[in-house]
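To: structure desk
From: M.T.
Subject: fold request, one chain
Message: Could you run this one when you get a chance? Sequence is below, nothing fancy, just the single chain.
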Amino acid sequence: MNSFRSYFVILLGLCLSCSVVIQALGQSQTGPSPQNTSTASKRNSSSKKATAQRQRGNAEISKIVSEINPRSIEATIRKLVSFGTRNTLSDQNDPNRGIGAARDWLYGEFQKIAAQSGGRMTVEKQTFEQPKAARVPQPTMLTNIVATLKGTQAESVNRVYVVSGHYDSMCGSPTDAKCDAPGANDDASGTAAVLEMARAIASHKFDATIIFMTVPGEEQGLLGATHFAEEAKKSNMDIQGMFTNDIIGSSLGGNGVHDPHTVRIFSEGVPSNETQQEATTRRSVGGENDSQSRQLARFIKEIGERYVPWMKVWMIYRRDRYGRGGDHQPFLERGYAAVRFTEPNENYQHQHQNVRLENGIQYGDLPQFDDFKYIANVARVNAASLAVLALAPARPKNVTFPTSLSNDTPINWDANKEPDFAGYEIVWRDTTEATWTHSRAVGNVQSYTMKGMSKDNYFFGVRAVDKKGNRSPVTYPKPQPRRTGTGATPATSP
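Reply: Done. Structure tokens follow.
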């Protein structure tokens, strides 16, 4: 009995020691600094409450997610397939076949949705003439269908988020306007997802504006998306994020892998519109993995996996698939943050193929190869992310580091203007980590110093938070410009 009691005492002592070690390790990661224990303790308490609130989520967004209906998505895809072909060069006046019939049907569906928005959604046909080009043998009229759900907050209404799918399709040749081109996956899936998102979201109110868009001419060279992006740039439209959904229809790949719980999201690191001076600075200070598009991808991963926890958002560090492109590209080239959603394993027998049975293999982009529940889940990830973006404050602007040498890291930024704004969070991660792993609430301030943490050793960012706990995407700091004539080393020097 005595030996058992002694063993128990020793075991208890070991457990208590382990507890102390574990607690110390936890404090070394996120705990208070020795010089300001009281303030840091309050921040940690506030951070725990915020974390719990984030884990519970927003009931309104959960409702939107639950209203995404795979049966509705299936009905849309089958209707689009029923037009025979949606090749951009096909008939525009036949009410039953061709891209014109698809265009008019989509316009009508968006108008029905707009009727449920209390007057906040408007729908337009953005028509333009596409000149003769490599895949356009003669000048052709193209029409984007654009449904705009206007924000309700004066300070945020001009901040815009765009989600798109392309409603054109093709056979083996992009200029064959006569062959049957069902395009059930490429890209009736993305078009149906956008339409379903609009249905689920239109009756809800948001601070910022959301645009639901279906475009033609993707297979001819991203023509519809390019026209919209160019017009947006000319009018100084403040697009803070753009999603394109293209080939999100199948959970079964040509490699035989069935994965109904993963969606790829492609985001570029080095911005497509980066100037030579910006490139020089980036090479000096880092940031090739911290473009606004990559911050948008990280945001979608965090929000999507919170509200659709059975889905994995697989971030791919490329602008698009190897050597290929999509409708987010024209937005990137004009300086907008943009990403692409695509299924994890494509099947090329059902992509850009004439419909045929050959050697016992069915070729062609047919609806029988779509997984409508999977498409609905991808739409849910989109919808949750769009909703949080449009409810949250704008991402902080003019976030900068001083270029002075220090083992501390001061960060500065401009103040947000939203009336429901609450404060800011500093986030950071090790330089080899893909996502933001640490955060600290710092209050409604415009500067903060990370004591004892050198900008040499970590990547930092700043995000804005409103009174309901909605968080913006992260802004990655840039080096503060130095005044010339001071004898200081230029910010671009290694």
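Reply (cont.): The chain has two domains: 59-391, 396-494. Let me know if you need anything else for the meeting.
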